[in-house]
Amino acid sequence: MNTRVEAALNDQIQKEASSSQFYLAMASWSENNGLNGTAKFMYSHSDEERFHMLKLVKFVNERGGKAIVPPVEKPPVEFNDLVNVFELLLQHEISVTESINNLVDICLQEKDYTTHNFVQWYVSEQLEEEALARMVLDKLKLIGGDKGGMYMFDRDLENATMQPAPSKDSGYNG
Ligand code: OFO
């Protein structure tokens, strides 16, 4: 496997692992603050990021490279409120998108069209994740400090998922 592409894929493995840790911390914080719907959403999102990482690990090894399992990073323990949680989530996803775009760029420079093809799955995944995070943030801003609204928001988020396209079928019923 091309060494530059291999290094970029290993960087991405680290980023997906750190996304999984970050969302796990958000899940735990939500659970401790009575936001069980949000906690469920974040636990499942954390699992999804682990799946993104594993998909990369397997790809690197199958293509003759060496996947490096990254060390576990300590994510934040406290968050100000739900708006803060989703703002951080969106910022994080934006930085992951930049890293995926960089990976695409390296694949093209190195003429590694197989990896380029593989990475396209992540390109569409990032589009969906950023769009859903923006939609959730817009809802939260509309709700403002309304407690009833927040209760409904948390309940609806329980059934949401980051996976489907964030159009009408986003799975988010808010
Ligand atoms: Fe792996 O999609 Fe978010 O980070």
Task: Give an account of the 3D structure.
The chain has one domain: Ferritin, CATH 1.20.1260. Helix 1 packs antiparallel against helix 3. The chain starts with a helix and ends in a 17-residue tail after the last helix. The chain has 174 residues and is an all-alpha fold. The chain has five helices and no strands. Hydroxy diiron-OXO moiety binds next to helix 1, helix 2, helix 3 and helix 4.
Q: Write the element-wise H/E pattern from the N-terminal end onward.
A: HHHHH
Bound molecules: hydroxy diiron-OXO moiety
Number of helices: 5
Biggest sheet overview: none
Q: Give the strand tally.
A: 0
The first-level CATH class is given as: Mainly Alpha
How many structural domains are formed by the residues? 1
Average residue-wise pLDDT:
91
Q: Determine the fraction of residues in helical runs and give it as a percent range.
A: over 70%
Model regions low in confidence, pLDDT < 50 over at least 5 residues: 164-174
Overall spatial form: elongated
> Which superfamily, in CATH terms, is the homologous superfamily?
Ferritin, core subunit, four-helix bundle
State the CATH topology: Ferritin
Q: What is the annotated CATH architecture?
A: Up-down Bundle
Cα distance spanning the termini: 45 Å
Structural class: mainly alpha
Rounded Rg: 17 Å
